Automatic annotation (TrEMBL):
Stored Gene3D superfamilies: CofD-like domains
SUPFAM superfamilies attached to this UniProt entry: CofD-like
Species whose genome carries this gene: Marinomonas hwangdonensis
Superkingdom to which the source organism belongs: Bacteria
UniProt GO MF annotations: LPPG:FO 2-phospho-L-lactate transferase activity
Protein name: GAK system CofD-like protein
Length: 405
């Protein structure tokens, strides 16, 4: 009995037949899985939902900056900002969607208003009298009020509400209201906005990132690593780990839940997308079980490198990024668990990366073609960039990825 088969096909890039098929029936589209965080993938996600309603987004819960940082410090919760923003990117924007809920979840309180005014606005939301919540019908309205009421009752009097995302406050209340678990409130959130895809944190744990630099310094906290909210790191990153808290070096790790493992192993395509190389991409690959699940998926894995300058990538050319990505994935695999015969006959067991997807004209740096061949990695070059702004064209990227799925 044969457990699995590998089927080869001729591929066009982009493949107009597959793209047209998926655009016509997005509810039957492929399971394209992304490891990401932040906002780098949100525009691509908005386009992708036109072709498939089955994309899977595993996002990092390790952010420690912005308004999410205040909620993390107040309640010791995983970061919820990236979850909320990706869910919003996947929200149904057709007449079947919920525009009133979308507007509420994307609203931020003012940065300039007095604290007393912001507290009054939160109270209006909780009792259902704010203009943003009045238009939402029950039972959705009551569900949202319940989560906001929990957040309101638990925050301290001096909690800074300036610039706070209402969506983040709702998710924080749902987390506190569900035995400190994110999955139930993410599921509810997804249903309320009719998300056309699935979004989850890689792990449901309140952890942070730690890095050791080439000069020996140790830096704790995603917001200190990215070079966006603070000064750039004085030296390139040597290694990264998950850490308990932001005050002391306390390395730790967690195993991914079974549903995350199943999602990774069952995806039709795995994409390592653009974004902060360490704090968004590699951070998602650190939790135990991620690398092994990737390598047990026989379907294509593709890396779409960053454009422009990523402060985290200093001194890290394209080939070294490819090597580090593969190393992080394979570090989690336990090859001894694979029978010797399987090692020899099923190369998919060891596959961390199959393709590097690149724009046909952009200069990403020097590629070592011999080294790529030894790693069984193929470079695919196709138009992907909008030339006027020198950024990835979301539709071209989506169509290229779907051609590989």
């Amino acid at each position: 009995m044969v457990d699995s088969l590998r089927i080869w096909r001729r591929m066009a890039m982009p493949d107009p037949v597959r793209v047209h098929r998926f655009r016509s029936l997005p509810e039957q589209g492929p399971k394209v899985l992304f490891f990401s965080g932040g906002s780098a993938l949100n525009k691509i996600s908005r386009v992708l939902k036109e072709y498939t309603h089955h994309s899977i987004h595993l996002v990092t819960p390790f952010d420690s900056g912005g308004s999410s940082a205040r909620l993390r410090a107040e309640f010791d919760i995983p970061a919820v900002g990236d979850l909320r923003s990706r869910l919003m990117a996947l929200a149904d924007e057709t007449v079947m969607g919920q525009p009133e809920v979308y507007e509420l979840f994307t609203h931020r309180l003012s940065q300039e208003e007095a604290v007393s005014v912001l507290k009054s606005q939160l109270q209006q939301l909780v009792v259902g009298e704010h203009p943003l919540i009045e238009r939402i019908p029950n039972p959705m309205k009551a569900l949202i009020q319940t989560q906001l009421a929990v957040t309101q009752s638990r925050i301290h009097d001096d909690f800074d509400l300036r610039g706070a995302s209402i969506g983040n406050l709702i998710m924080a209340g749902g987390y506190l209201n569900n035995q400190q678990q994110l999955d139930p409130i993410v599921f509810l959130f997804s249903r309320l906005i009719r998300a056309l895809g699935e979004v989850k944190t890689t792990i449901d744990a309140s952890l942070h990132l730690g890095v050791e630099l080439e000069n020996g310094d140790v830096v704790l906290g995603q917001h200190r690593i990215t070079g966006k909210e603070t000064q750039r790191l004085p030296s390139p990153i040597k290694r990264m780990w998950l850490n308990k808290g932001l005050r002391y070096i306390r390395p730790t790790n967690c195993h991914i839940a079974e549903d995350r493992k199943d999602a990774i192993e069952g995806a039709d395509l795995i994409c390592y997308p653009p974004g902060s190389f360490y704090s968004s991409l590699l951070a998602n690959l650190i939790p135990e079980g991620v690398g092994r699940a990737i390598c047990h998926n026989p379907n294509p894995k593709v890396y779409l490198p960053n454009l422009g300058v990523d402060p985290e990538q200093q001194g890290l050319p394209i080939m070294e990024r490819i090597e580090r990505l593969i190393a992080v994935v394979l570090k989690d695999t336990v090859l001894e668990d694979v029978a010797p015969a399987e090692k020899e006959t099923d190369s998919a067991v060891l596959s961390a990366l199959d393709y590097v997807l690149m724009d046909s004209d952009y200069d990403y740096g020097d590629l070592d073609e011999a080294r790529l061949r030894s790693l069984n990695i193929q470079v695919i070059k196709t138009p992907l960039i909008t030339r006027k702004v020198n950024k990835y064209d979301e539709r071209l990227v989506a169509q290229a990825l779907l051609s590989l799925a």
